[in-house]
Amino acid sequence: MCLIDLNKLVSGGMLTMDQNIVITPTMTGQIMAKYYIAYETMKLFTQISGTEILIQILALISKCHEFAEMRLRVNDKKTLNLFNKNTKRATIRFPLNGKIKTWDMKVNCIIQAVLGNLDILDHSLLSESFTIMRNGARIAKCLTEYLGTRRVNCYTALLSTIILCKCFHAKLWENSPYLSKQLSGIGSVTSNQLVNAGKTTFQKILESNPRDIELVT
Question: For 28-60, what is each residue's pLDDT tens digit?
């Protein structure tokens, strides 16, 4: 069994092994170990062409093995489908085709809901969102480092991954008007109030009269 797994890692480019079974990790293998990433996930990374844009990188990360234990419960579907498509309220940035049917669509939708500052009122989904965002940030960091070592032209994919990595860190989209959430003591409610008052950049907040901020919040 051990040799079978070792051969899998060798064939996947994670290790090199000579006739004396002297094992040496490749750069890809070192990155995999550094971030505790599953072999299946690293195999997924090797399929990247290098031209992927943000929406495609997000979809790829959502399919990673680290999320495979996520289950799409019947009770989840209504909330997730409303996040995906709804004419009466804010929805996710990149709507998914059709209804939410698989665990990777669920992961994708939850990531977008968090980054889009959408209220997750379902306690089960809210609890899962913490795990998803934590794992997503780790995977995005790993993918960023992996793409940085590839010799083929993958600048578009690397840029998209770096942007998404920053989004995971801030828990907001890179173009989000709710950037005030990054300030200490400001949550979703206060951030929404500031956005409604037109305070959508740090410069506008900085230039605001303190009394105006107090009135808004």
Answer: 889 999 999 999 999 999 899 999 999 999 999
Question: Number of folded domains in the chain?
Answer: 1
Expressed as residue numbers, the domain containing 196 is 177-217
Band the pLDDT of 130: cuts 50, 70, 90.
Answer: very high
Under 8 Å between Cβ of 79 and 115: no
Mean pLDDT of the chain: 91
DSSP letters spanning 96-123: PSSS--SHHHHHHHHHHHHHTT-----H
Find, among 130, 153, 157, 148, the residue nearest to 61 by Cα.
157
- For residue 62, is it within any domain? no
- Predicted pLDDT at 1: 59
For Cα atoms 51, 38, 31, give the angle at the middle one, nearest 5 degrees: 65
Cα–Cα nearest to 138, from 187, 54, 67, 217: 67
Q: In angstroms, rounded to a whole number, what is the distance separating the alpha carbons of residues 54 and 121?
A: 27
Residue 216 domain flag: yes
93-113: average pLDDT: 96
For residue 208, the SS3 value is coil
As a dihedral over the C-alpha atoms of residue 44, residue 45, residue 47, residue 53, rounded to 10 degrees, the angle is: 110
> Which residue's structure tokens are 């709507």?
95
In a domain, 59, yes or no: no
Residue 195 lies in a domain: yes
Nearest Cα to Cα of residue 9 among 21, 25, 27: 25
